[in-house]
Write a structure and sequence with these properties.
Length: 92
């Protein structure tokens, strides 16, 4: 099924929009001299969590109510083996 005809769940869109907000904030922190790197790291974790949850909602209609990236990754990996590559890149 091509993406244009793919049914969209409003919750997927909401998680993706929130992650996009985090990304914009991270970019602003990094670009600003004197920005808080700890906050950028925190927002990076938040962005990853939201994107993993968006994927789970897309694939299974719901997501676990957890914040641990490893737990969310395991659930995503059950649907798609390419999540192994994502985890390898994230560790770098």
């Amino acid at each position: 099924m091509d993406k244009k005809n793919m049914p969209q769940d409003p919750l997927v869109d909401e998680w993706r929009a929130r992650a996009s907000d985090d990304e914009r904030s991270i970019d602003a922190i990094i670009k600003e001299e004197g920005g808080a790197p700890n906050t950028a790291c925190f927002l990076s974790q938040q962005m990853a969590e939201k994107l993993l949850k968006a994927y789970l909602v897309f694939r299974q209609g719901t997501h676990a109510r957890v914040h641990a990236l490893d737990a969310l990754w395991e659930q995503c990996r059950a649907h798609e083996a390419s999540f192994d590559d994502i985890k390898k890149r994230a560790r770098i």
